[in-house]
């Protein structure tokens, strides 16, 4: 076994061990609560509900299947969006760039109103709207009409905003309304499990999508598979979810101007969370963009000429993220650990240091380990951020505030897209050395997030950047050599959060 296979096996064993321990702990908690309800007649938890365990289980049984199906549908599309437009539909690079920019702009604009709409007319209705909008977006790729493709990307941007706001808003509000804080099912544990499931679904969706492409011979197949995930998700939402509006007395009086005022100045906690979210997730965006060329340049610097196993590396990153999510659950269920706020502060600092470290030590193995540390921080960050937002944001305008918090991030992505350039370089030696510029760019934004103070559609947009981006390295011969990604690295996806998924075929 080589270095990367050993690391992947270590992540599998470690995650399996932690998952088993968590399962046994959950079983002990359920048994303890059942015994307490049976033996204590004056128990406040059981006085009005004969079975809080069954109440918690019912909630998990209606939320987690929908969560898995929705995020599975999103992960299925990611690895194939860019290559579908560029390779199968033969669209020029500038058209592909405009398509992706359209999606991000639609996401930024829709963030101004979709959250408020969900708060006023119901989060369940908004979740159903997401399913319908995403199905239409997936159907658009079956056409070669350029207008329909642009309309599909606009719908995709709108759907992404809904996905990152209304599902979480519905879950937190429903959790509060059902009084589940009185049970063994803790809100922090739900967020931790969400990221763990997302990591597993990411790998499975990438494999399934690749199988469908090879079986059908078209990259439209994963989009059809996404529809097959969204249809049962819609059915479960329609038949088993209850509607919630948050604090109905406040929702109808909350305007966009008032929400922006709340976001930008009145509530400093929300402002801090917004700045942290923008900076950390912006750093994550740069990491998604640069990790594969950075590892490749380290690989070449070590005089290795074999191809990097990007599929195994991606699986290792997902294992690191899953490890982070389970550590978060452990931290929140143990009184000996730090608070969620302290954990979030620690995470952004460690993430910054992990990326700064790769600037000074350019060893391939150390670079890989530092990237795994960053991915573990991502696994800790998303449930911690979700939990903090769940506690700070009021139920009455939860979806609206969640939507507004995504505006700075979408602006960041649009600016990054506009600054992308194609620079072709050549070198007579055909070799390359370590590129520090990507690391500096990543670390720069990570440090910002470390001074302040959880997915999945970013990485799908980054196919475009991988095709366009070349790292310039000054050699002793004063020539520039290319570091272009090959076809085996095009399957690129991102949240979460999304991730790079190399073609495994």
Structure commentary:
The protein is an all-alpha fold. Helix content is 72%, strand content 0%. It is built from 20 helices and no strands. The radius of gyration is 23 Å and the shape is globular. 51% of the residues are buried.
Please outline the helices and strands.
Blueprint: H1 3-39, H2 52-77, H3 81-88, H4 93-110, H5 114-121, H6 123-140, H7 146-177, H8 187-216, H9 221-240, H10 248-251, H11 256-266, H12 268-301, H13 310-333, H14 340-360, H15 364-392, H16 398-405, H17 407-418, H18 437-451, H19 458-461, H20 463-468
Major beta sheet summary: none
Q: Please give the share of residues in helix.
A: over 70%
Mean pLDDT: 74
Based on Cα principal axes, name the global outline: globular
In terms of structural class, how would the helical and strand content be classed? mainly alpha
* SSE order, one letter for each helix or strand: HHHHHHHHHHHHHHHHHHHH
In total, the number of strands is 0
The radius of gyration computed from the alpha-carbon positions, rounded to a whole number of angstroms, is: 23 Å
Task: Report the β-strand fraction as a percent range.
Answer: under 5%
Total helical elements: 20
Compute the separation of the termini in Å.
20 Å
The poorly predicted ranges are 45-50, 422-505
């Amino acid at each position: 076994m080589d270095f990367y296979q050993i690391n992947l096996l270590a992540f599998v064993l470690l995650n399996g061990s932690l998952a088993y321990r968590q399962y046994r702990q959950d079983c002990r908690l359920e048994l303890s609560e059942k015994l307490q309800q049976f033996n204590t007649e004056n128990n406040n938890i059981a006085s009005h509900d004969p079975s809080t365990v069954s109440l918690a289980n019912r909630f998990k049984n209606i939320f987690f299947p929908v969560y898995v199906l929705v995020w599975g549908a999103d992960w299925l599309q990611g690895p194939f969006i860019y290559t579908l437009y560029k390779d199968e539909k033969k669209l020029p690079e500038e058209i592909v760039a405009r398509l992706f920019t359209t999606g991000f702009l639609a996401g930024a604009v829709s963030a101004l109103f979709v959250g408020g709409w969900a708060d006023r007319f119901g989060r369940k209705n908004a979740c159903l709207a997401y399913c319908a909008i995403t199905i239409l977006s997936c159907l658009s790729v079956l056409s070669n009409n350029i207008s329909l493709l642009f309309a599909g990307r606009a719908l995709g941007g709108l759907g992404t905003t809904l996905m990152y706001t209304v599902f979480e808003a519905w879950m937190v509000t429903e959790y509060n309304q059902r009084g589940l804080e009185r049970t063994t099912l803790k809100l922090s544990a739900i967020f931790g499990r969400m990221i763990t499931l997302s990591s597993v679904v990411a790998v499975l969706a990438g494999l399934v999508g690749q199988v469908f492409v090879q079986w059908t011979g078209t990259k439209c197949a994963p989009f059809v598979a996404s529809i097959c995930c969204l249809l049962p998700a819609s059915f479960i939402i329609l038949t088993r979810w209850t509607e919630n509006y948050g604090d109905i007395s406040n929702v109808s009086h909350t305007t966009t101007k008032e929400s922006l005022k709340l976001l930008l100045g009145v509530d400093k906690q929300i402002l801090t969370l917004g700045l942290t979210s923008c900076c950390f997730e912006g750093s994550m965006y740069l990491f998604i963009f640069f990790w594969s060329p950075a590892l490749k340049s380290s690989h070449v610097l070590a005089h290795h000429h074999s191809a990097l196993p990007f599929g195994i590396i991606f699986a290792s990153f997902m294992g690191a993220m899953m490890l982070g999510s389970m550590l978060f659950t452990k931290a929140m269920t143990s009184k000996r650990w730090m608070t969620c706020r302290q954990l979030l502060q620690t995470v952004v600092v460690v993430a910054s240091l992990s990326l700064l470290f790769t600037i000074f030590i350019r060893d391939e193995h150390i670079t890989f380990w530092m990237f795994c540390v960053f991915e573990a921080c991502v696994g800790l960050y998303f449930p911690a951020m979700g939990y903090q937002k769940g506690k700070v944001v009021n139920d009455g305008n939860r979806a609206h505030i969640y939507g507004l918090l995504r505006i700075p991030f979408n602006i960041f992505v649009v600016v990054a897209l506009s600054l992308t350039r194609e620079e072709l370089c050549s070198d007579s030696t055909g070799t390359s050395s370590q590129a520090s510029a990507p690391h500096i760019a990543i670390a720069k934004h990570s440090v910002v997030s470390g001074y302040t103070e959880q997915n999945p559609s970013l990485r799908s947009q980054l196919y475009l950047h991988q095709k366009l981006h070349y790292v310039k390295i000054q050699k002793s011969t004063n020539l520039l050599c290319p570091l272009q990604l090959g076809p085996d690295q095009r399957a690129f996806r991102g949240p979460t959060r999304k991730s790079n998924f190399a073609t495994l075929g």
